[in-house]
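ok so I'm stuck.
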Amino acid sequence: MDTLKAFKDKQYNIAIITSDDIDGTERFIKDAGVEHLIDEKITASINGYQKPNPKMVEDFYKKWDVSPNEIAIIGDTPTDIQMGKNAHFRAVVGVLSGTGNKEDLADADYIYQDINEFYKQEAEWNK
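replied:
not stuck anymore, here's the structure
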């Protein structure tokens, strides 16, 4: 939670992109106590697309007036990494704190132990 808050303090918008449904996603966010830190929820049940299809995030660009080269995606699965690559995001980051290992995340631009290390290495991925 502290790391998410630190990103918010730096004026980052935070979105969750998931192939899960909106009900489960909202329940997870509520249970984690981070509702106030999440700006957007992009789910397969809302727009009908699944990761790694880049169409899943097209409405997000319009709504937030951003382009792919302004977005960093953080994921722990090969599908997350492929989503970032397919959408041409600025930084595609793998984290080892979830289900994937280094081999699974090898196509990522950067691999960190977790979101905390990702935050600490901002100068590296946010060039």
